[in-house]
């Protein structure tokens, strides 16, 4: 006798298109959200045309003087004329090829790392590139045998912003990992010193750290000995950022189940193997959003460099509009800086989401 299984009835096909269905689910699911959506659309209707007219339709893009620019729209001629200052600061124009090659090498190394995705020596090659790239970059930017020396006080603009943020991120990350492990340590002295450092640095504003690095740090040097101002700023930013990275990673360490530690012990791994091979990879994966958030905050905090006499991309707005030829054009400068910063930070944020998906080990239905 045949036995027939009862089949679950299928849902009737939705007559609505995907667009209508998405609008209904996300923008108009109920009366309250529908009202807020309509209010937001009305605000956009009021703001977007005005901004678009000022930035694009009524703007001046031709290379003209300040007086020849329109009154209603933006004068992007000012940005085009001062673009080199916004990007390179006071770096000598005849050797712009050196920072350009630093960027080309960075992109090339990333491309090489992607090509070697399945190569058995990928890790060794990647570590080698990470080690030699800062050395090559410093030699190109600062100079040395065969290259003209460019003192760091001439560095500025977007180039300086990226350098400070990148060095701060790379240098603070391993220190932050060690501090996080130190705060979790069972040795009282190491744990106490880690806690004191983290809590002290997190309780002090970055501007104070920069002042200390610029003014107080030289007092500990011998008479006649001086340290480069940019190097002092990098030390201060690294000290500041490492404390925040430590707390982010500590949160990831605390999220690891106790069974992972016990499983590592059962496999006979020593402490270093257990941390490096089992615990840290999981903690870092969990902490990716918060780590990227800290790095984005650091990138924005580089605008405080102006306080100690270093001219990043934001400070270039004040310098360029001090030129009597372009008085009153600071609005265009701030809008330009805002757009550049948004593009960079959005790209970083988007890439962090890609990393989350790539290293996600959760089983999703």
Please supply descriptive tags for the structure shown above.
single chain; 365 residues; mainly alpha; MetI-like fold; 14 helices; 66% helix
Summary of the model, kept short:
This protein has helices spanning 18-26, 31-57, 77-81, 83-88, 97-115, 122-142, 157-183, 188-202, 206-216, 229-254, 258-266, 271-301, 315-321, 330-358. The protein has 365 residues and is mainly alpha-helical.
Question: Secondary-structure element sequence?
Answer: HHHHHHHHHHHHHH
CATH domain topology of the domain at 77-91 and 150-358: MetI-like fold
Helix content: 55-70%
Low-pLDDT regions: none
Protein structure class:
mainly alpha
How many angstroms separate the termini? 37 Å
Number of strand elements: 0
Largest sheet: none
What's the Cα radius of gyration? 27 Å
What is the typical, i.e. mean, pLDDT?
Answer: 86
The CATH superfamily title of the domain at 77-91 and 150-358: MetI-like
**CATH architecture assignment name of the domain at 77-91 and 150-358:** Orthogonal Bundle
Give the count of helical stretches: 14
Beta-strand fraction estimate: under 5%
| Mass-distribution shape | globular
CATH class of the domain at 77-91 and 150-358: Mainly Alpha
């Amino acid at each position: 006798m045949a036995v027939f299984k009862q089949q679950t009835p299928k849902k009737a096909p939705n007559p609505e298109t995907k667009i209508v269905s998405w609008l209904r689910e996300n923008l108009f699911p109920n009366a309250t959200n529908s009202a807020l959506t309509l209010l937001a659309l009305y605000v956009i209707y009021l703001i977007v045309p005005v901004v678009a007219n000022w930035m694009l339709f009524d703007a001046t893009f031709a290379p003209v003087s300040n007086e020849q620019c329109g009154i209603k729209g933006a004068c992007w001629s000012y940005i085009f004329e001062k673009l080199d200052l916004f990007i390179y600061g006071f770096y000598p124009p005849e050797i712009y090829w050196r920072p350009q090659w630093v960027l080309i090498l960075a992109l090339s190394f990333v491309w090489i790392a992607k090509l070697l995705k399945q190569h058995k020596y990928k890790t060794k090659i990647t570590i080698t590139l990470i080690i030699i790239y800062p050395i090559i970059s410093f030699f190109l930017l600062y100079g040395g045998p065969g290259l003209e020396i460019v003192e760091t006080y001439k560095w500025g603009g977007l180039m300086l912003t990226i350098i400070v943020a990148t060095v701060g991120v790379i240098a603070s990350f391993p220190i932050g990992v060690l501090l996080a492990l130190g705060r979790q340590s069972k040795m009282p002295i190491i744990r106490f010193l880690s806690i004191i450092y983290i809590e002290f640095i997190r309780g002090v504003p970055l501007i104070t750290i920069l002042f200390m690095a610029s003014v107080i740090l030289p007092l500990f040097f011998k008479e006649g000995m001086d340290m480069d101002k940019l190097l002092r700023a990098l030390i201060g930013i690294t000290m500041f950022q490492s404390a925040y990275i430590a707390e982010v990673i500590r949160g990831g360490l605390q999220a690891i189940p106790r069974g992972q530690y016990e499983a590592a012990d059962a496999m006979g791994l020593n402490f270093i193997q257990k941390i490096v091979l089992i615990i840290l990879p999981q903690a870092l994966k969990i902490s990716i959003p918060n780590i990227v958030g800290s790095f984005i905050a650091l990138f924005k905090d580089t605008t405080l460099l102006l306080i100690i006499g270093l001219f990043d991309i934001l400070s270039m707005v004040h310098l360029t509009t001090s030129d009597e030829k372009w008085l009153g054009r600071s609005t265009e400068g701030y809008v330009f800086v805002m757009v550049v910063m948004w593009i960079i930070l959005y790209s970083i944020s988007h890439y962090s989401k890609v990393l989350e998906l790539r290293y996600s080990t959760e089983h999703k239905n």
